[in-house]
């Protein structure tokens, strides 16, 4: 054995690493060609990537944006790039993107969903990004009430009354927690608010509307009479313009057919481009014609609305007298006669109500749910389900952990039932069955019903994700919160939930993304979400046979939203990371 | 373990035991299911007392002090803290908890909040102290436990001893009348144990009513005015530290002391 003791006499200086470990060469060697297996995999991957791009890029580059039908697209692509070229027909997106975004929402009211979307972004921004000025938060609580009002329109009283329900819940919470028990306050307050929304909002709204209607009837009558007189003249003028322009367009179409054959005959590239731009210029008169026709449509609608309203107004006194008589007769009627009288009374009541609603409305023109569609519908349903499912999921998760046996049983039952049933089933329930379960007299809008179902579905999943987060928290956190004298809700809000939610961020965001994509299932119950619309577009003769461009566009839009959510979740995780792991 | 907790002489000028009862426990029993953890506990603690509770593992020490602020519920007997009886009335429980500070073996700091936020949270939300005032109080106590410079860090960035001192400061910020310690030094390295014990000694010197579950016999000798020995859920022996260590009466106590003091 030699001597084991050793003492370093000279310290080593720092040396640069060998050339093979640094720079591009080093990087390539380490990441792509570190051994023969890796090298083969790299080469195979490169070939694969090349194949994919070689297939897609020419298709993307040889696209047509200006055509009016699939045939025209093909003709344009063939003309521009030769018969063998394959090209995308993005013209369908150009022509239909408004429909894909707004569905059949009245185009003169597009400003409303746009404003609503902007408002939503402004309301969400300070919640999502804490670096933004805290003052912006003041706007956020109003968004949930203003946005639906903008989208569906109707009287201003409804959102105000809905807010009043929250105020009521707040008062109940304060009173209960100071006089009875803080633990009871929150559920009871929620119940009071729900009862208010179900049973009080609509009657109060109707009463206020009726009051205003009674005051306005003379003015509105006069106004409608004016319209009924003036509008037919305007429409006749439009008719004349349209007829004149129609001839121009007819001539242009004939020219176009000639041009298309010229295009096929054209030999040189320059000649081809010239013919193509000539075809393009023909669009001008055609677009002008479409605009005029739309204007006429709007005027016609206005006229028919004015006529209906005027007729209703004129019949109002008579209907009211009929109502009195019917009521008097009803008082001493029996049997079959009674049923008949009741039915007649209902019809008369309906007529009166529809006039009163129209005349007494202070607010926006209502837009029916069946006109909603496209991404607007997906985003509306998705956003509601996402924002509502988080608090409901938290409540369910807490309920599932609670010591109160019945509450726990209800929560477990709810979660397991909803998770055990496919969303499609719930949507069918929403579209067909849900009205049977609601108190009589409340008729729920189909979109609202779908929103409730999607929200419940998402909440059940959310509850389980959050329960995972709760389970990961050490018991000591609860004990420390208790020992400091924080009550249950304060401990949850300040100590438990911030940590549990932080742990659950990846799961929560996955659920969000899943819910947002699941909104496309509503097309199965006949709502026109982007997929539902794409079927309608494909059924149109002009676009029959188009697949990739339409679904590609829809997929891209969904990807943008979902990818943003996923990036946001990563940002949030990084931001909330405290201390060392 | 028998060596002293501190080299310096302890200032006993403010360490006075008053006539007023801080905690009164009478005939208290507790079961975990069928398991009888605490058996007929009778204990009166006066304001200003410094009590050390010791005993073998599983003897119910933690359970006893956790009953005092109702982290555990007792099934029979009576516990009166600061004149308020502990019943299932949540209001009383929250009131007592805000008067009784507790320090845990594993610190239990809130990892998502900074040290300062850890200390101001309860004063702001429970005592409704304005934020600014709460922060001033918090800085005062953080200085007292000698880590004001860490105020803006997160618990995960501190050493164990520092974390435990923050936990003590966090409790003190509620200005409690009584402090409970459940093995505050058991999860710490020897060097850090000293930091924490120093803090506890200073607290004792200011006259705080303290109940400590600990195996630091040096601390018990120097600071405690009474040592309680528990075994199998019962109080087996209690006495002033000198007679307790030098002249234990019960066989169990003798056995326990011989094991822990390593004779
Ligand atoms: N939640 C519980 N459920 C059932 N039994 C428990 C529970 N908590 C503690 N026990 C049991 O009660 C007895 C007393 O526990 P306790 O934690 O009070 O002991 P301890 O004296 O603090 O012990 P240690 O020195 O190990 O901390 C032990 O036997 C333990 O197994
Ligand atoms: Mg213990």
UniProtKB/TrEMBL annotation, chain A:
GO molecular-function term, one example from the UniProt record: transmembrane transporter activity
Superkingdom of origin: Bacteria
Electron transport is among the record's keywords: no
ABC transmembrane type-1 domain segment(s): 375-569
TM region(s), chain numbering: 36-61, 109-129, 149-173, 180-199, 375-398, 405-434, 446-466, 548-568
Cellular compartment(s): Cell inner membrane; Cell membrane
UniProt-listed Pfam families: BPD_transp_1
Record membrane topology: Multi-pass membrane protein
Entry's family note: Belongs to the binding-protein-dependent transport system permease family. HisMQ subfamily.
Coiled coil: 235-269
GO BP, one annotated term: amino acid transport
UniProt protein name: His/Glu/Gln/Arg/opine family amino acid ABC transporter permease subunit
Keywords: Cell membrane, Coiled coil, Membrane, Transmembrane, Transmembrane helix, Transport
GO cellular component: ATP-binding cassette (ABC) transporter complex
InterPro entries: AA_ABC_transptr_permease_3TM, ArtM/GltK/GlnP/TcyL/YhdX-like, MetI-like, MetI-like_sf
TrEMBL record, chain B:
InterPro entries membership: AAA+_ATPase, ABC_ATPase_HisP-typ, ABC_transporter-like_ATP-bd, ABC_transporter-like_CS, MetN_ABC_transporter-like, P-loop_NTPase
Keywords: ATP-binding, Nucleotide-binding, Transport
CDD domains per UniProt: ABC_HisP_GlnQ
The ABC transporter domain, residue ranges: 23-257
Any one GO molecular-function label of the UniProt entry: ATP hydrolysis activity
Tagged with keyword ATP-binding: yes
Pfam families, per the entry: ABC_tran (PF00005)
PANTHER family: AMINO ACID IMPORT ATP-BINDING PROTEIN, PHOSPHONATES IMPORT ATP-BINDING PROTEIN PHNC
Similarity field: Belongs to the ABC transporter superfamily.
Identification of the protein by name: L-glutamine ABC transporter ATP-binding protein /L-glutamate ABC transporter ATP-binding protein /L-aspartate ABC transporter ATP-binding protein /L-asparagine ABC transporter ATP-binding protein
